[in-house]
Amino acid sequence: KFNLLGERIKEGGRKMSAGMSSVSGRVKELFQAPTVADRMVEEASSEALTEGPDWEKCMQICDVVNQDPVMGVEVVRAIKKRLALHSRNPTVQMLTLSLLETCAKNCEKMFSEVASERVLDEMVKIVDDPSTPIVTRDKALKLIEAWGESAPQLRKFPMFEETYKV
To answer: What distance in Å separates the CA atoms of residue 100 and residue 75, rounded to the nearest whole number?
Structure first.
């Protein structure tokens, strides 16, 4: 039956909608084994860090990203996943946004990765969620605003431009 259904879909020329594609991608991300970047981001944004960010771990992540540009992509994906998975935990949100800010300030290629990996989507969700504490919303909004003002090259990314205008 699956083969018959598959053939009908192929013959009908139907393709997965963009929404379904993003949902399947998100489900895939959630069930993948944690990467090195996932573990580093989790340690740097652990809810056990009640006194604020662990700056040493944040700067270690920046060093790794600056030494290996491919890790920049992985770290941004890990940050995005962390924001998505812990979207209701204000401590993790703030620590993850602080890590993101630290990486953006200290890693050369971070801006383009943030824009292309759709991290802004997760930030907008945080801002739009009425249960998100005001301080966390402000942090996300200030980051978006600061990036828009300090990095005009971001405007070439449609996702960033659309978010920044709002």
So the answer is: 9
Query: What secondary structure letter does DSSP report for 33?
Result: P
> In the chain, how many H helices and how many E strands?
10, 0
- Given a cut of 60, whether residue 137 has pLDDT beyond it is yes
CB 82 within 8 A of CB 41: yes
Alpha carbon 113 to chain centroid, angstroms? 9
Neighbours of 27 (CB within 10 A): 10
Question: Rounded to whole angstroms, how far apart are CA atoms 119 and 4?
Answer: 38
Q: DSSP readout, 38-100?
A: HHHHHHHT-TT-TTS--HHHHHHHHHHHHH-HHHHHHHHHHHHHHHHHTTT-HHHHHHHHHHH
Q: Within a 10 A sphere around the Cβ of 122, how many other Cβ atoms?
A: 23
Locate 146 and state its tokens. Answer: 């600061």
Does pTM surpass 0.90? no
